[in-house]
Amino acid sequence: MSGSLAFVFGLPLAVVVFFFGLAAYERRTGVATGGGFFQRNGLPIGLYLVLAVGFWAFFIILLPQLAMVDMSFRPKLPPSQMGGPKDLYTLENYRYFLFGSTTSTEEWNWLHIKAFFLTIGVSIVITLINFAICYPLAFHMAQSATAARLRVLLLLLILPYWVNEILRAFAFRVLLSSGGIINQMLMGGGLTSEPIDFLGADVGLYMGLSYAYLLMMIFPLYNAIESLDTNQVEAARDLGAPWWHIHAFIVLPHAKPGIASGCTLVFMLTAGALAAPLVLGGPRTLWFTPIVYDRFYQAFNWPQGAAYAFILLVSCILFVLVVLKAFRLSLGEITR
Amino acid sequence: MAAAVELEGVNVTFGDFVAVKDANLTIEPGEFFSFLGPSGCGKTTLLRTISGFIEPTRGTVRIGGADMKGIGPNKRPTALIFQNLALFPMMTVAENIGYGLRVRGVPRHERDEKVKNLLIQVALAEHGHKKVSELSGGQKQRVAIARALAVEPSVLLLDEPLSALDLKLRQHMRAELRAIQKRVGITFIYITHDQGEALTMSDRIAVMNAGVIEQVGDGRAVYAEPRTPFVAAFVGENNQIRGRITARDGAMATLDTPLGTLSGRNPVALDVGQEALLFVRPEAMQLRANGTTVGFAGETLDVAYEGSVTHVTLRVKTGQKVMASLGGNPGLALPTPGEHLHLGFRPEDALLLARPERH
């Protein structure tokens, strides 16, 4: 145990020390001078950066994903048979998603397919709701709020996110459950005689999901709108534009990269959210991520879980790319 | 015909800060009118008040005789050209110019026709399809003018639009702006801190200082007949010498200064005993032979020969620097730095104004 701890913390430390050693060496010998990447950083540090980032990208990001993709194309086997003659590439995990069976293609697996499209569809709606909530706020913060007001708003936005995701989800549950505060108030006020089943109707889930990634929407929007020259808004107004025209034709086009970036983040995170669906989902709710989770931990079928996760990932990426294309944005632009 | 713009007792305050104080002004239709003043004097605030971005705290703004109270900038017959132009970068040149027409719901073919005419007017006929970022500084300037003119305003407001250009282009654009104004015949209200711009382009100039319009008049009036010490000192170079009036003689007066007894014109009728400032333009200074007593003497600090004119800086006995621009005499012997020099002026070329109390 202590050996693995020493490895986990010692290795990065050694890497950092090595880097500063290199930097000190270069400063003494004065290798670094203007020009391209290697001229600027010097050959040793340049090489080091390429290798270190390459290593990080490959081993920490790419390799685990590739392992999952590989696993998704393999059958579920007991450990003793792994790598044996039965361990062949197969589409059975994907077949199961579509047809609910690893062999037959007679009947569609409506339960999972529905959950999948519901997840994508609701994620789109929630992304739009997030945008509708965040755009006016981001515009106010970026263009008209005073410095003091801006600080307060930022604080109010960030503070609730100090509470962890699961706790926030449970708080919604407490608020919305049959005996919860909202139902008590409604019944106390005589507005309903029976408690309303917010959780069963998925109201809680949608509220929780809308709330969960609000910040991912507001900051890209704020950044994008903040860089808009106030004079442009005023110029449009001076030329006779009503307020909606200014937003539609001046602010939104300018903020397009920020909108794309915020929407992409919220959509991806919502479609992949796990805590909110687990905690807030009603008994009839079928969100896709809990199904994936169940493949891994209930069915103990890791290859199938990997296939399900891969389906979700690829669909989301494809969807985002199509939407970006439709709005004539390149991937590079949304990182601005 | 109603005045193009009328300001009546206009005050603009931000909290405790008085940005514009009691502005009363009438600007005539077709006039090229400039507000001239240092930065922070309230001229931009006044411009934004006329365009409708700021409501006056007190007072009335009338445009074409109509009270503008409660009427937003998008509903006023004015168009504003911003200091940084504020062209729309996501639109082409033609779309920029047509924007005002588009929001007014002008049909497409009519709009295209009008934009085409404007592009020809500002010599950008070939550039309509380009992005704004592909244009040069002067071309952008002309797009901004065309965009503002497209909505056919009765008053065009310009907020130091030339300040970002280099000197040569700036001088060229002055002439061009003036020509455009003559051609379209509408009122131009121009904001600048550059007296050269104000003097060369304007029919009339309002000189502003600390929120107050100090003087309104044509270029000659504000340069040759300033009515306040601020205007005398701000418009063009001027030497000022403080003193106390000792005698009055018709339009002239004599004052006692640390540099001796001097005299000048007394347009604001200062009385004997009053504190006054004597203003003499450098170009009114003349070189005097050693020994004459009118004017003052001092040590030559700097001599800058410019051909037609030679700028001489003198340090007089109070320690103050006095500038003289000597010229017109090819045979003139130039003073050398360190030399003791006597400068004089004709009393008619000097001007006496009341000394402000806080100075």
From TrEMBL, chain A:
Keyword Secreted recorded: no
One Pfam family matching this protein: BPD_transp_1
Membrane topology: Multi-pass membrane protein
One biological process term in Gene Ontology: transmembrane transport
Primary localization class, coarse: membrane
Domain ABC transmembrane type-1: 116-323
Name of the molecule in the record: Spermidine/putrescine transport system permease protein
UniProtKB/TrEMBL annotation, chain B:
GO cellular component, one term: ATP-binding cassette (ABC) transporter complex
Record keywords: ATP-binding, Nucleotide-binding, Transport
Recorded superkingdom: Bacteria
Cross-referenced Gene3D superfamilies: 2.40.50.100, P-loop containing nucleotide triphosphate hydrolases
PROSITE patterns (UniProt xref): ABC_TRANSPORTER_1, ABC_TRANSPORTER_2
Domain ABC transporter intervals: 5-235
GO biological process, one term: quaternary ammonium group transport
GO molecular function, one term: ATP hydrolysis activity
PANTHER family associated with the record: SPERMIDINE/PUTRESCINE IMPORT ATP-BINDING PROTEIN POTA (PTHR42781), SPERMIDINE_PUTRESCINE IMPORT ATP-BINDING PROTEIN POTA (PTHR42781:SF4)
Family from the record: Belongs to the ABC transporter superfamily.
Protein name: Spermidine/putrescine transport system ATP-binding protein
